Amino acid sequence: MNWTGYPSRRLAVNGLLTALAICVNQLEGMFPHPLPGVKLGLANALGLAAFGLFDFKDAVMVSTLRVITVGLTFSGLGLSFGCSLAGVGCSMVVLLLLGRLWPERLSLWALGQAMAMGFNLGQLAVVAWAVSSPSLFLSYLPIMAGSSLVTGFATGTMAGWLMRKAGASKSPGRGPI
Amino acid sequence: MRRSYLLTAVLALLALAGLAISGARRDLPWEEREVFAMDTLMRLKVQSDDPKVLDRMEEEIRRLEGLLSAHAPTSEVSILSSTGALKASPETEQVLQLSIQVAQGTHGAFDPTIGALSRLWGIGTEEARVPSREEILRALETVDYRTLRYLGDHRFSLSAGRLDLGGIAKGFAGDRLVELLASMGIRRAVMDLGGNVVVFGPPPKAVWRIGIQHPDRPRGEVLGVLELPERRAAVVTSGVYERYFERDGVRYHHILDPSTGEPARSGLMAVSVACSSSALADGLSTALFVAGPERGMEILSRHRCQAIFVTEDRRVLITPQLAPRFSLRDRSFRVEVLR
Amino acid sequence: MKVLDAAVVLTIAALGLSPLVMGVSPSVSGPLVVRISSPTLNRTIRLDPSTHLTIRVQSRDGGFNLVEVQGLKVRVSDADCPDRECVKRGWLTSPGDQAVCLPHRLVVRIEGDGDELDGLSQ
């Protein structure tokens, strides 16, 4: 448990993070991507920040709420929604497995990269399934890996910055600030 | 702390760059064109952003065809065949000289004066038929490469017979096109001149991968693949499957033996020759098919070329330098490395 | 930088490079074909210089894509999907080239020559 502060603060911060995640999601939609429906995943930074500030459950909540809200209000429940859902699902699995290694044995930016890779794998899997083309998965894998390294680094750095701004401490459980 | 951020950024960038480089394809776009010339389909691919390159290549092909075609009565080759004398243009002179050299080097297995015989059989045309023994013998009398003589000062004489440069013209075109491309500063090109594969420039993926047509299976199916790292190479194949007609259950293919007057029966289904010169590869592929593996190896020893002989009993005989570059795809054949 | 950081980067890089390593797989090649696959249509057309045709592919939701074959190249010449990425892809000319219409679940790909030969000597 990493959380800092009172439960009410936690709820408020999570709400803010979710709202920010939705905004980033819309903004990053302006970046062109060869595969329609597939996103860069910068909005994952907010989920990562939730993890860093509080706990795994918070990360799941922030990211999942983001996907669902975007799907219900903006993008519709189509392929894009499916990609994001699968992407968040996979990145959360990665977070579950690797999250405990932070901050002692794993840097935040590397965690961001690993989660980005999970996110992209999930999206890619959905697209490949949708067009029944397993070779599509393989042919886009190199680009997705490269993108994971870049956007993952960005999300990790952004999450770290956000956490510092929100008053996170390096060692968990330092109490309310 | 700051140093570790820098280090990680560098590492991430390096990994990204590595991926980008490996994913990166070619610098310039490839332009492609199909040209029907010299009685066959030619596919030209050049790496260039200037569309006029292909235009010039097509012009050159048509020009050469105009000079060398045995069919067109106004070509220089036809003039030499019909009048027995010719003052040749530079390219025609080159081809004729080359033809004489290859004929000499192969002891007549390749013979440019085979025209009367080719016309008699007509393989590849509507008039294809099995000629009588007398007709063959009469035509054979005119087949002798020694009757083609260079008189100096760009002049040639042909004292008997007719010229048919079909066994070397496409190859020559290939070499001319490579020279043309080099003079235009083109970096890479791949040409398929009716089955003659000519590659030019550093291979985009370390080696040029050139397939060898399977002698039994439909067009496009591969017996094996050659991987050539050279910056200029031509692979020319002569095979029984290319042009033939069947009469009474017998298949007559188009590679005539200048000594017997009939389709060559050397126990081969196909021969592929790899040289840096496509004209030489073209001439030799015909010659080696006629000569067969043993005589063929003796001929090869005097030229800087490699070859693959595909025999009727499903053996693939390959010259030692080419063996490591060849991967067989059909296991029903056996590869034997020649000495 | 921590040990596991490098491990993460290297793992991702390895994943990214793996298809390129696997990409060289020997197989018996065949003539060049264009494969059109969608939920409503599955067709393989042999490519040949004399081939000239246009195929209208209907999508499940009533939309369409027009696949145009001109000799040895293919393209999606028109479509009513919102982004028209498939049309923007342009001409497909070599084995491995493909155009994808995600909304209509359509893939148009050139296949044959399992290992993408530079030429075929015949």
From TrEMBL, chain A:
Q: Is Transmembrane there in the keyword field?
A: yes
Q: What is this protein called?
A: Heptaprenyl diphosphate synthase component I
Q: What keywords appear on the UniProt entry?
A: Membrane, Transmembrane, Transmembrane helix
The regions listed as transmembrane in this protein's record are 38-54, 74-98, 110-131, 137-162
Q: Which domain of life is it from?
A: Bacteria
Organismal lineage: Bacteria, Thermotogati, Synergistota, Synergistia, Synergistales
